[in-house]
Amino acid sequence: MDMKEEEVKTENSMAIFSDEIPMNNFSFSGIFDMPCEAAEKDPLGGFMDLLGIRHDHFPPSHDLFDLPSLTTTTTTTTTSSFSAAAPTSIAALMSSSMTMTMTMPAQPLPSPSPPSSTVLPETSEVLNTTPTTPNSSSISSSSNDDQTKPLQEEEGDADQQDQEKTTHKQLKPKKKNQKRQREPRFAFMTKSEVDQLDDGYRWRKYGQKAVKNSPYPRSYYRCTSAGCGVKKRVERSSDDPSIVVTTYEGQHTHPSPATPRGSIGIAPMESGGFVPPAATSPSPFVIPQLPNYQQQQQHSFIYSSPPSLNISSSTTGFSPSSSSSSSFPAFVQERHNYNYIPSSASLLRDYGLLEDLVSTQMRSTEQRDGDMID
DNA sequence: CGGTTTTGACCTGCGC
DNA sequence: GCGCAGGTCAAAACCG
């Protein structure tokens, strides 16, 4: 269906910012992949969706930066290089979610990334090259997967041949020209002894692959909840085996089955977001599926976001023991020691997926903005 | 027995 | 076109 393809072309874009915020012993940066539409119309909105922040929990993005009621436990000096409102909003969001005061430069610093307004179309094309979602129709169908379903149904003939080629396996019909719409992504690094972090959701492992240039395999998980197509990938850093890189993709269409105290509850959002499972949550800020850590885990986060957004931050005196006004700090503070990762860039060399997602921004000079998500 | 993990095969995209 | 690497499928094995 051509229409579908066009939808993919026009509706997708990625917004990425790379942000490393060293905070005493806490490093945080990551990657987000967000729908173009959301990014353009309401960058923060999309971003918030991604983060699982409900719009109705928060003022419009352009107002965010002026949020006066943020609980400030730390003073953060932020040097930001970005353009347009989106980064600003995101920066505000970040500072807000981390309950830090962010000082923004009056003049945006020269950004290695083009302004978001010009980047978005590019990234949109790039994303358009992503493969078709290979979700099996036999399994759950997320909202995004629905997009590909009709296509799969229509291509019976051609795919029958493919299926016949396979022996007993019922391989899923796929349309060659159909580009897969990639779900919003959220990647972060954790310093942990265990690969599987408890983030409140239930995951089923559906695959494991060896990663090039890494002795550690990458595991693929899918949310076990029916109708939820959220996936996550977990791999261990080859450079530092103690670091686990977790990448979430998609949005939950359900509340967290288990929202233990301190864990992050995530619920579906329309554009790649995760929201608190219960409306009773007083806090609008929820970092998507950040794990409910277990003992002996030490974490550092690579926290990313939209491509056109490039924010570098430095923080002093950050104390993870912040207030309940922010889920993220709450999450951060949860009975864990966070090791500062001296240089995220140095850690981003051979992380396979992580490298795809993060390193380009971290390296900042390369112009693989579009590639990094793909 | 139902759910999860393992694992080899298969598919797809991309670079050469 | 080919090979590689990433991603997914699904049967079998495993586990509580």
Automatic annotation (TrEMBL):
Compositional bias ranges of the Basic residues kind: 168-179
Phosphoprotein is among the record's keywords: no
Domain WRKY, first and last residues per copy: 192-257
Low complexity: compositionally biased ranges: 116-144
Source superkingdom: Eukaryota
Gene Ontology CC, one term: nucleus
Membrane-spanning residues: none
Listed Pfam families: WRKY (PF03106)
Keywords: DNA-binding, Nucleus, Transcription, Transcription regulation
Region (Disordered): 102-186
Protein name (database record): WRKY domain-containing protein
